[in-house]
Design a protein that fits this description.
single chain, about 400 residues, alpha+beta, four-stranded antiparallel beta sheet, three-stranded mixed beta sheet, globular, binds flavin-adenine dinucleotide
Amino acid sequence: MTLTDATDRSATPADDEARVLALCDQLLAELPPSGTDPVTFLGRQFDLGLAWVHFPEGYGGLGLSPKLQKVINERLLGAGAPSPSRNNPIGHGMGAPTIVTHGSEEQKRRYLRPLFTNEEIWCQLFSEPGAGSDVASLSTRAVRDGDEWVVNGQKVWTTLAHVSRFGMLVARTDPDAPKHKGLTYFVVDMHAPGVEVRPLYQITGEAEFNEVYFTDVRIPDAERLGEVGEGWRVSLTTLMNERVAIGGQIPPRGSGFIGELMRVHARTGPHSVARRDRVMQLWIRAEVLRLTNIRAAQQRAQGTPGPEGSIGKLAMAELHKEISECAVELLGAEGTLFPDGYTMERPRSTGMWKNPQQAFLRARANSIEGGTTEIMKNILGERVLGLPGDVRVDKDKPWSEVPRS
Ligand SMILES: Cc1cc2nc3c(=O)[nH]c(=O)nc-3n(C[C@H](O)[C@H](O)[C@H](O)COP(=O)(O)OP(=O)(O)OC[C@H]3O[C@@H](n4cnc5c(N)ncnc54)[C@H](O)[C@@H]3O)c2cc1C
């Protein structure tokens, strides 16, 4: 599906930019952020087509170039508007593009607006104890029963499942088809009978993610996303957007992880020339990644990113580890302490860090979540550089005949 299809194409890019900026000003005048609750503000932002500007009109967009989203975000966030994605990163970064690309009219109307306003949080139910990197080998079963599907199985590492209203679920509907062909994608109500969410605590002491058990959970067929057996194709939209959502961020220069390192550098020391050199090298690499992500975003003429989206994810994961390691080293003995206390908690958002020590521990997950560094290298090698593929002995075999532990 072409996302950008509903607009007067005689307009020039400058006209489009002027149009969205005028709409931003209209929104800010109608609902000044300081005196407006976030749900009302974000709802109006959606209705004006400023949520995902490249989505079609009526679905939170205007059918314009995705490049304009940066212009909109800068204007609105700069004026103190609420962040739409902070509390719903999975819904915003992965759920919305999947729904708008593969959802029925009813699903788009039902889900996109409350997802954007954060009234309904979303989670991603892909990974299982026996299926992570090779997620297409998953075992959770969905069996058709009239107009419904009955789901049984277990998912794991499900970020924010404990606060989610809906989940993006991939389940096996045809065990006799090869692994990629027997999958179907569903929207699952996380409050439905038979859905059980249990916390999994991470090294930081937080349980951002969970185990999710499905016992005879009933999903109406109308909540299927895409055709029966097409679950892998729909999943690819989610996965490609996930890599960009995690690794394609374009923060202001010198902010985020690298900004924290600069603050630690400024308040510790004196530093040796070698240390200063190391900090400078990291700053340069953070800036190169930022510029690479800006270029990638500008080249993305349509909404859905391609395999090259893995570059940002790969680079970000390694860089975050090195930056946070350096910060903890600069802190010396203080780097071994957890200043805000080490309390077990279940946060309402993900990937947030409170101090360099916590950032150091959280960064360990960056090279695993959203596809491991090794898998990013496989994708780039095979699908971008055209190198020979990994050995895949089970690709064409019926899933039911593939041995598994
Ligand atoms: C913080 C965090 C949040 C997460 N959130 C979610 C979520 O919300 N929803 C969800 O569905 N999942 C989530 N995940 C799960 C994540 O997607 C998986 O952990 C990841 O895909 C790896 O799968 P695995 O853990 O089973 O490791 P495995 O696939 O078992 O991999 C083990 C090791 O083998 C390597 N490896 C595997 N296959 C290959 C290969 N073909 N070539 C080279 N090396 C290979 C891997 O790189 C890794 O080092 C999250 C994970 C983390 C850490």
